[in-house]
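Fig. S4 source data, part A: sequence.
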Amino acid sequence: MNGTRSFLGACAAFFVFSASCFSAAPNVGPLPPLEFHPPEPERIVLKNGLIVYLLEDHELPLVSLTLRMKTSPADEPGNRPGLFGFMGEVWRSGGTSSRTPEVLNEELEGMAADVETGADTESAVVSLSCLSKDLSHSMAVMKDILLHPAFRSDQLALSKAKALEGLRGKNDTPGSIAKRAFRDVIYGPTHLYARELTPATVNPISRGDLGSLYKKVVSPEGAFINVSGDYDRADMVKALEDLFSDWTPQKRVVPDVDLSAIQPSTGSLFYVEKDFNQSRIVMGRVGLSRHDPDHFALELADYILGGGGTSRLFGQIRSRLGLAYMVGSFSIEPKGPGLAGAGCQTKAGSTVAAVRAILAEMGRFVQTEPTADEMSLAKDATINSYVFRFNSPVQIVGERALLEFYGYPSDYMKTYPANVAAVTPSELLRVSKRVFSPEGLKIVVVGNQKKFDEPLKNIGSVTPIPLDKID
């Protein structure tokens, strides 16, 4: 799974790492090349500095609008993880100063309109979806939510209760434990990318905390709006200018954070004890960051090594050896240092055999260039998958705005197929050695060693990680 594509496509917080990384994908044969000429949205700048992307679509009487503002981990008071998430949720659920949550919900439901909010350490978002005939009214409601949130205490209490309930089950699956342990091992437990919610961080969060964070980050500086749907261009521009005429810039400077200061754990093989009938194995290292020039080669390498039913890991570990149902590789590319590696979930009695088999397959992968058939299939699948993500104006205009928001070149979308197609076997091998070489990998195993096929120490020196030391 590629982290950059997943992040942009989902328009969500970066850093996805779950069982889906290792799920089997269907066997996809070579596909004919697609012509990819997406329409170019119009880009304008409002008087208050808001950057707007517009793309009309009159097929259905619907309009979609998304406003995205820049945030930073340094905005969170006391660097408390999760505060952005609570702000983003209660921003909408808490109603506004003039509309209670009940009144707000009833008003939006009456128009079949939807307004959603969210926030993380890179962006804060307010989105609107409505019928064209209700656009003016819906935009007014959206503005009220944007600029006058109430962050009601009862809604915050409800959000905290749901979060605490979720935390009670955080050790119920080997995948959840392995995800957190692996990030602690690679980054160090205090790094931004390794921090997790805990009862100790959730309980103190107050309505005042949300209001303080909101005041820091809700600003038109560096903000983007993308609008698609059934509207008239001139009318929409005027409506946006009127809507945000009193939302003035506050000279906000988004604080930067050094994400490169990682403190990986000493050792190479780590074990977390929990009595499961299956074991989760994750092995990897620091990978690429966003905008790394090796990104396109890594996408193809990830696909060939562990991208699905045609991958080498799937063919060897599952099909030939029968050691795991879920097996694959992953690459995650956030703003700071990313992750790359491989892993699987296997029955406890084949744990050590699965570790050895994955390491052996990764070793073979970085020794020789991929075959012409592997390159062709990987390029076809990757390019076609990318192109088919943009089959509607709302997807196109949303991606175009996101690309600029996150600092990608203005032609990234249009040149993506050519950049993938240009990757050579030698480039792919070089990048594979950089990120997938078995030498120096950190390996995390979660399970019950009493049920393993042989002692884990037969692979190497084992560093235990107590379960209660993992957030």
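Fig. S4 source data, part B ends here. The chain has two domains: 3-35+259-469, 42-243.
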